[in-house]
Design a protein that fits this description.
Distance between the termini: 20 Å
Helix content: 40-55%
Radius of gyration: 17 Å
Largest sheet: none
Shape: globular
Order of helices and strands: HHHHHH
Number of strands: 0
């Protein structure tokens, strides 16, 4: 790898180490721990990647990049936890009806700022989950497929991260050969 100043590398999470979920926790703790484990996994897959490479689409014809996945995951956190479950009236992130794929396509902006937005959305999601009384609590805004519970959102988000962590692993391996986080 060429000599690139340290400030040009991504620093996704203050501490990108993962905490292994307990094998004897209750359901709520298990679901939230696995979601946090997947969030930390995504951060590890981005750690140390040069900022320019974060936006590169290195697996043609796919339009995926680590930067695009980062923006997408921030938007999905906001959509499911804040907008759908909590019913907050906040704007969509990286999406509009005119440009529904801007999370992956419009990769302008600062990578560190994108990581900040993602971390903030993860913190907001944790706040919402902590404030919920029970896992069977229904979302404030029924989806087009009907009502849903907090339990469903947590499982949905675990699946979302698991899928995109696989994508991130392939992207990272293509960028610099690193894999298997």
């Amino acid at each position: 790898m060429p000599d690139i100043p340290a400030e040009n590398f991504s620093q996704p999470w203050p501490d990108a180490s993962r905490v292994e979920p307990s094998r004897v926790a209750d359901e709520r703790e298990t679901l939230t721990a696995f979601l946090d484990w997947h969030r930390a996994t995504f951060a590890l897959k981005c750690e140390g990647v040069a900022q320019k490479q974060m936006s590169e689409k290195v697996i043609p014809p796919s339009g995926l990049s680590l930067h695009g996945l980062l923006r997408h995951l921030a938007a999905v956190e906001r959509w499911w936890f804040r907008q759908q479950f909590a019913g907050e009236d906040v704007a969509n992130l990286y999406y509009s009806d005119d440009d529904p794929d801007q999370d992956f396509d419009s990769l302008d902006g600062d990578i560190e700022q994108a990581f900040g937005v993602w971390r903030d959305e993860c913190d907001e999601s944790r706040r919402i989950v902590a404030a919920a009384d029970w896992l069977d609590q229904r979302g404030a805004v029924p989806s087009r497929n009907g009502p849903f519970t907090l339990r469903w959102v947590l499982v949905q988000m675990i699946a979302e991260y698991a899928r995109h962590n696989g994508h991130a692993d392939l992207l990272r391996e293509r960028i610099d050969g690193a894999s298997g986080y």
